[in-house]
Specification:
Layout (H helix, E strand, L loop, with lengths): L2 H13 L55 E9 L10 E5 L24 E5 L5 E7 L10 E7 L6 E7 L17 H5 L2 E2 L2 E2 L8 E8 L7
Parallel strand pairs: 1-9, 6-7
Antiparallel strand pairs: 1-4, 2-3, 2-5, 5-6, 8-9
């Protein structure tokens, strides 16, 4: 991949920072009040991490084109229950491609979109913020659209959870989402996706706030 391509990718990600506040999930109004519910890791966590494991899942180093699907600029922040940022925290995401297939030998004969990275990671900044460039999640049989998250911090137990898309009819039937009985906790996993043409033409943006339990060393 050329230096110009790398610069272009970096510019897209940085340009989105100013938009993060405008796509904030309504649940953020109670910052520090609701601990993010734990959810199943599922069977498709990568067996082997991709060589190009960064926070841009839409373009893969060495591939000729971008991933299929609608680009999603996903912003977020990791805090504790008091609303304090949790920096230097590893945030991992993984999801199916635009056709509902994971990069995993157990799913669809490993026929996932080769131009989609499928997995991404980054460490939170001092503010606790993170961001990913990925695709809007899609449904597949038995599941509403979702993105898997794993958060690893020095000061907290690892958290595995899932993010869902506001307005999806299948949310009402999804067995994992509806295992979260507390309506406020369940709502904290559901994120509105808004137009983000100012970042990238035709793209969407959303904001997922992750709240970890009490600091293990406080």
């Amino acid at each position: 991949m050329s230096n110009n391509s790398l610069i272009s990718r970096r510019s897209l990600l940085l340009a989105g920072t100013s938009l993060a506040a405008t796509v904030a999930c309504p649940s953020l109004a109670g910052t520090g009040k609701i601990r993010t519910p734990r959810q199943s890791e599922g069977p498709f966590y990568p067996e082997h991490l991709p060589l190009d494991a960064d926070n841009d899942l839409v373009e893969v180093a060495g591939r000729p084109g971008p991933a299929k699907g609608t680009v999603l600029h996903l912003f977020g922040r990791v805090t504790d229950e008091r609303g304090r940022p949790v920096p230097d925290t590893r945030v991992e995401i993984w999801q199916c491609d635009a056709m509902g297939r994971y990069h995993h030998r157990l799913d669809a004969g490993n026929a996932a979109d080769p131009n989609f990275q499928g997995y991404g990671l980054m460490e939170t900044e001092k503010s606790g913020e993170f961001r990913f460039r990925t695709i809007r999640p899609v449904h597949y049989p038995g599941r509403t659209p979702h993105i898997h998250f794993k958060v690893r911090s020095w000061d907290f137990d690892d958290l595995t959870t899932q993010m869902y898309v506001a307005g999806e009819p299948a949310n009402e039937r999804d067995f994992l989402l509806n295992r979260v009985r507390d309506p406020r906790a369940r709502a904290s996993l559901i994120v509105p996706l808004l137009s983000a043409d100012e970042i990238e033409e035709g793209a969407l943006a959303g904001n997922f706030h992750i709240v970890l339990g009490e600091n293990a060393f406080s």
